[in-house]
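Dear Dr. K.,

Following up on our conversation at the group meeting, I've run the structure prediction for Lysophospholipase L1-like esterase from Allocoleopsis franciscana PCC 7113. I'm pasting the input sequence below exactly as I used it, so you can double-check it against your construct before we proceed with anything downstream. Let me know if the numbering doesn't match what you have in your notebook.
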Amino acid sequence: MSDPYLLAASVISVGPICAPPPPALPLRQLDELSTLLVSTTAKLFKSVVTPEIVPLVETVSAEFSPPSPSPAQWRTQPVSQSLTPILIPSEAQEATQQDTTNLPVLPKPQFTALFPTSGSQLYLQRLAALKAGTLFTRLPADSFQSLWAKGTHTKAQPLPSPTHEQWKRLLEQEAKAVAKGQGANRLTILLGDSLTLWFPSQRLPGRQLWLNQGISGENSGQIRRRLSAFAQTQPDTIYVLAGINDLRQGVADDVILNNLRQIVQRLRQNHPRGQVVLQSILPARLNAISNERIRNLNQQIAGIAQREGAGFLNLHPLFTDEQGEMRQELTTDGIHLSHQGYEVWQKGLQYAESALAAKRAERTRKLSDRS
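The predicted C-alpha cells came back this morning:
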C-alpha cells in the first residue's frame, strides 16, 4: 500500500467485517465534541456558529473552468468503448452520440498537501463543515485542519474512531441540511461503501451539489436499510456502488442482486424525478475474491438496471489488467483505490454526467417541439 491517502480506509476490509459495529460513544462525549467543533469553527470564520445545523444556501456559480482532459488521454481503452451502454433504457444510446465534450465545469477546490487520512479525521472535518452550514464536498481538502490535523505527522494520541451509528447520523444530518437548502441547485448523490466515502471531493464533476452517502464496511443490505436518510432530498442523479463487502463477507449472489434490485426500486419510489445509476462492482486484486464471480455479477447487475429502468455505468473494464484483476497502480491494498484509481473513476463519472446532460437536453428539446 504505497499510497498513504487511503491507508486508514483499508481498516474496513481487514479482519472480521461481518462483526457488528462497536457500541456508540457516550452521548456526553459526542456532545462535548460538537461543542468543541462549534467553538473552533466560529473562530475560523470570525462569525457566530450556533449549535444548530445551518441549512445550506448555495448558488451554483456562473463562472466555469476549461473542459477537463479528453478521455483519449487515458492509458486504458477509450471511454466510449468502456462505458457504453452507459444509460438504460436504450434512448440513452442516442444521447451518448451527441457532442458533450465541451460542457462547462464548475471550478472545484484545488488539491492540497494536507487532507484527512483516517475515518476519524474525515468525520471531524465533515461535522465541522455541517456546523458551519456547508458541505465538505464544497470545500478544499484541508478545511478545518485545526480540528483534525493535530498529530497527523507525529506519534500523538490518535483520535477516537466514530462508530457506524455515528456515521449514519452524520450522513442523515447532511442530507437534511441539503433538503432544506438545495433550492434550485442540481444535486447528485453518491451511495455506497468505503470506496464512495473516500471519493476525493476535488475530483467530483462540477455544475451541481454533491452529497456523499458512503459508509465504510457496509454491504448491500446495510445500504438498502438506510435509504430513508436522504429520502427528502431532490437529486437529479443517484450513483450506487455496492457489493464488494458482500463478497468478502460470504454473502450469496442472489442476496446481493436482490438487495440491489430493492435499492433501485426504493430510490425510484423516493425520487421519481431522479435518475438512478447502478455502477459495476470493481475488480479486486485479492485471492479471496473471485474476479470471474465479479464479472458474472456485473452482467446480472446490468440486467437489473435495464429491467428496473435505471442506468448502468460499467466501470469494470477501466480498472482491469490483462489478467482480469484490479490494475496494481489503481489500488492501495487490492480493493481500495489509490489517487490514480479515483482519477479513473472521476473520468467515468464525467462521461456519465455528460451523457445524462445530453439526455436531459434532448428531452427538453422534444417537449419544446411539442408545445
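Two things stood out to me. The longest helix spans residues 339-370. Residues 1-107 have pLDDT under 50 and may be disordered.

Best regards,
J.T.
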